[in-house]
Amino acid sequence: MFDSSLKNGASKQKALRACLAFGLGAAMLHGTAGAQEGVPYAGVTEPHAAVQPSNEQLVSPAIERKIDALLKQMTLEEKLGQLVQYGDSGEAAVAELGGAAQQPGKNPETHVKIDVMNLAATGRLGSMLNVVGAERTNSYQHAAVEKSRLHIPLIFGADILHGYRTVYPIPLGLAATFDPELVTAVSHISAAEATTAGVRWFYSPMVDISRDPRWGRTQEGAGEDAYLGAAMARAYIRGYQGNDLSQPDTVAASVKHFAAYGAAEAGREYNTTDMSLSRLRQVYLPPYKAAVEAGAATMMSAFNALNGVPATANSFLLKDVLRNEWGFDGFVVSDYTAVMELRNHGIAQDAATAARKAFLAGVDVDMMSHYYDAELPAQIRSGRVPMAAVNEAVRRVLRVKFALGVFEHPYAQGTEVTAAVAEHRPLVRKAAEESLVLLQNKAFNGASPVLPLSGTAAKIALIGPLADDTAEMIGAWGITKRDPDVVTVRDALEARAKQTGGAVLYAEGTKISGDSEDGFAAAVDAAKQADVVVIALGESCEMSGEAGSRARLDLPGNQEKLLEEVAATGRPIVLLVFSGRPLVLDWAANHVQAIVESWFPGTEAGNAIANVLYGDVAPSGKLPMSFPRAVGQEPLYYNQFPTGRPPFDTDLTKTPTFATRFVSRYIDAPNDALFPFGYGLSYTEFAFSDMNLSAAKVPLHEAQQENGHKLITAAATVKNTGNRAATEVVQCYVRNLGASLEQPVRSLQGFTRVTLQPGESKKVSFELGFAELSFFDNAGRSVIEPTHYTVWIGGSSLATEHADFDVTP
Ligand code: BGC
Q1: Chain-centre distance of CA 223, in angstroms?
Q2: Helices 425-435 and 605-613 sit at what angle, rounded to 10 degrees?
Q3: Which of 269, 301, 336 to mutate to test the pocket of ligand 1 (most atoms within 8 A of CB)?
Q4: pLDDT at res. 22
Q5: Radius of gyration, alpha carbons of the chain
Q6: How far apart are CA 431 and CA 468, in angstroms?
Q7: Which residues contact 72 (CB under 8 A, 6 or more apart)?
Q8: Ligand 1 site residues, Cβ closer than 6 angstroms
Q9: What's 568's DSSP letter?
Q10: Residue 487 in contact with residue 468, Cβ under 8 Å?
Q11: What pLDDT was estimated at residue 8?
Q12: In this structure, what are the phi and psi dihedrals at residue 554, rounded to the nearest 5 degrees?
């Protein structure tokens, strides 16, 4: 397919790109079923000849030559083998779904038994999912490499989202660090650990933007904001893939779930999404794009439909945007049985159609549906699926395998990591410390704020179902977790008490769910005897994550009742909230002194929390998602569009009168978040001043150049006005007024962590260019118009220091 005589260097890459875009692209478009099946938007983009490879390593001429040689030898069965993936349970979805349309309530069932070892040994298997451990991976790899005709190795993919054995906070917690370098560092250690068990492919990062915490998978992502989401996406890719995929301690990333899965209506899992092209491009696509630009090797197609076309059969997403516009050179794997589920979506009445639609739309690998191997041969024979498309998909899979170096080193390498690694604990602990968000810290009895606890705190009542539960510190995707490695809050506080001579009075109080009040009395009793109460409440890991949607966002079970009874003792209270999402903490905010959002912090949970509670570390986490006052406010996010009837300065805590009713508001709750995006306190205070911009005007012709050139420098001074050193996440927000499309009331366009000694100040600046100032119109173009901009710099999305400039015609 490729001219192997091409010279090295950029021109070669360009030629390769052009060949890919026009040669193969055109071949695929000519399939009789057509790649155009399922185009949701008019005006499909043409392949961009000029688009650069997303990852030069994947399209290296040396690799392409090896692939050409292999492709020539492969039978159709062997080719399709590369395009299927199974676990080692032997289960696969059944080719005949048993009339899902007639049984709409039924989940896909797995009643075909697959002899996976046999498939591996006969070259009919490309990859495996969630098979971990050197012994397990090596046994399948031996079959593939030693027994199969062409000796093509498998790759083992696994859902490692926030640590392999040494587990760090859930991704939502990591996002709260606003610290991409740290995310890169911890991601690298999880890759280094997992590769010793044969895993060279992570189904991570999950970069779906979520503006609705009812959606349980909120916990797997970076929250509600596209800019933060993109920064986190890049950070994960760097950490997993490094600079060179062939290094033994790297893994290929699978960016998921493409696309807009996080916009599931009403936060209900697997639900549909429907939105304007502008919103798709502006809010949902940026993190995926950032991941592709950072070189992500693979992408996972999502379960949801987007504007009526399931993402797994969506050629607009998978071809027009991902391949042709972004130049993605890796492969796309479907989500688990997502190819089969096209039938439940109602766009395929049989397995053959489902397989064909997914494949022609650009899904290269079928995870678990057992449709590509069962159905595509007949589709190819009948000419409905062109052989060129099969070769292209196989090429994409083999590229990743060659780039990973698994042909040379197919087996698990190094000493297998089977437990949390001591040397990794400090970094994982730092990540947990930075992820904690201090939501509230009030004084008790007019004294100083309750936190930090005094080093000599005599008696702590430690209460709650999450105070001493190792398993619940890990988060929903801890498939390789090891509970014994986890330090709980109880472990850590008791260790402190031993050092300081204090005491910990522990009482579980209640369970996470359930209504028994049997433990209440002991908890209240402990509180009465204590100087301070630390109460650990929240969700279980299982209440978020996949299929963890909730219609209520309160503390589950009778935990709030327990909190009320403990609060009635009149003792000062520190509430630790463990959750995979923002919860409604209205009652708590009105009745307890201190609240620390702790997410699920991982292996070092207790130590990190103790370090922050005692003030060894000043909290610096900021919310990546807004915390509502009531579930009915959802979806609630800071960067909303304006309305024609904003409430301006109406007091929305008051019941509306005729004069205050006819504005965009609720009659029974304020509009704003209880704790908004970007918010988080520390043990000091920061003040912002001297906001200024480098220019008051930017000519339109200059602003419209998409060359990465920066147009405006926004700067402000941040000062630590308190009496201890701490880190502030300085944030820059932008509003664009007067554009042809409504623009959000403000959007994050920069952030940086700044550590300041007491009294110290620092000038912080942000460079704003086309990327930060443009918006997407509904034709999918990013544009800048002659409009008015306001820029804010501050410590949350409520920042008040601002300055203005115009883009002039
Ligand atoms: C999830 C994915 C996951 C896959 C494989 C699916 O159900 O949606 O996020 O990677 O399973 O375990």
Answers
A1: 7
A2: 50
A3: 336
A4: 33
A5: 27
A6: 20
A7: none
A8: 129-130, 159, 203, 256, 335-336, 546
A9: T
A10: no
A11: 32
A12: -90, 175
Tokens 């209506």, residue located? 265
Full DSSP string of 500-537: HT-EEEEE--S-SS----TTHHHHHHHHHH-SEEEEEE
Q: Kindly report the pTM of this predicted structure.
A: 0.94
Of all protein residues, the one whose alpha carbon is nearest to atom 10 of ligand 1 is: 203
- The string of pLDDT tens digits covering residues 324-340 is 999 999 999 999 999 99
Please name the residues in contact with 454: beta carbons below 8 A apart, sequence gap of 6 or more: none
Ligand 1 mean position, distance from CA 378 (Å): 28
Integer angstrom CA distances of residue 282 from 178, 218, 639, 731, 796 = 20, 19, 11, 19, 21
CA atoms within 13 A on the CB side of 319: 33
User: What is the crossing angle of helices 180-195 and 425-435, to 10°?
Assistant: 140
Residue of minimum CA distance from atom 6 in ligand 1: 336
Distances (CA, A) of 297 to 203, 291, 333, 339, 361: 11, 9, 11, 21, 19
Q: Please tell me the distance between residue 448's alpha carbon and the centre of ligand 1 in angstroms.
A: 47
The values of phi and psi at residue 561, to 5°, are: -65, -40
Are the CB atoms for 52 and 327 separated by under 8 Å?
yes
Ligand 1 center to residue 389 CA distance, Å?
25
**Known catalytic residue at 335:** yes
Cis amide linkage into residue 582, ω under 30° from 0: no
> In 101-223, where do the E strands start and end?
112-113, 127-129, 155-158, 201-202
The span from the CA of 744 to the CA of 449, in Å, is 36
d(CA 143, CA 120): 6
User: What distance in angstroms lies between residue 199's CA and the mean position of ligand 1's atoms?
Assistant: 16
Q: Which residues of the chain are under the pLDDT cut of 70? A: 1-50, 91-111, 457
Which of the listed residues 201, 204, 335 should we mutate to test ligand 1's pocket, taking the one with most ligand atoms within 8 A of CB?
Answer: 335
Please identify, by atom number, the ligand 1 atom nearest to the C-alpha of residue 130: 12
d(CA 425, CA 413) in angstroms, rounded, equals 22
What's the confidence (pLDDT) of residue 93?
56
Question: Would you tell me the crossing angle of helices 387-404 and 61-73 to the nearest 10 degrees?
Answer: 130
Half-sphere exposure of 717 (CA within 13 A, CB side): 9
The reported pLDDT for the residue numbered 17 is: 41
If you take atom 11 of ligand 1, which residue's CA is the nearest one?
336
Q: Which is catalytic among the residues 335, 364, 469, 485?
A: 335
Structure confidence at residue 39 (pLDDT): 43
Closest ligand 1 atom to residue 159 Cα is 10
Strand partners, 715: 692, 765
Query: Is the sign of the CA dihedral 785, 787, 792, 798 positive or negative?
Result: negative
